[in-house]
Amino acid sequence: MHDKDVIVKNWLPRYTGTPLEEFGKYILLTNFHNYVEKFAKRFDVPMRGKDRPMQTATNRDGLTIINFGIGSANAATIMDLLTAVKPEGVLFLGKCGGVKKSTEIGHFILPMAAIRGEGTSNDYVPPEVPAMPSFKLHKFVSEKIVDAGLEYRTGVIYTTNRRVWEHDSVFRERLKELRVIGIDMETATLFSVGLVNEIARGALLLVSDVPMTPEGVKTEDSDRSVTANYVDLHLEIGIQAMTEIGVQGETIKHFRY
Questions:
Q1: Nearest Cα to Cα of residue 235 among 53, 35, 22, 96
Q2: pLDDT tens-digit profile of 63-88?
Q3: Quick check: is 123 in a domain?
Q4: What is the helix (H) or strand (E) element at residue 23, kind and residue range?
């Protein structure tokens, strides 16, 4: 167990309860157990890993969804573990807080980049390296959103390790200065570790709260409303995009430096 390839091939099944041969070529990532439940129910397939840190389900088209948990450390872990199966594309279906006044609950965001405020990615690449998605993957996802007659926003996401910050006025002002459209805890890490591991990656984020004002901070009731009104659509776009990209999308190449 001194070689990374050996470690991840042992650990991915250990974390998920899913044999390596069951993982599809394309992956949806999420932070939420109910996304995996909905996926498994829709395709009438088993949900693996109910007794493990991460849950998965894979449909008959070769698309796998994984709930990897919350936070940048977990985001780095799953992007390392996925090197065991070398996926052709990974799309993160995450939620974020809307920072700009024009960003409302229920909006979808395709991030152009993410600011690495989490620190985890510093273990993978120097601070000067930007956290960016794979353009061709995002291009295809954007086409699926437009085909569905929906709108989306683009902009920069700030990724932080700090879960409870909404009370901090200094931090809120900092977010305004950075001109970010949203804030989350995973996107920059997923982009950075995906770059290092040569995994095509993207993120389709759902604005689930607008935490720059006290009345906009997420509560149990408001999160329940977001789940009822937007999660099915969020999941549907991800399924369509990552099912069709292997047939209709442009080939994504990885360049070595």
A1: 35
A2: 999 999 999 999 999 999 999 999 99
A3: yes
A4: none
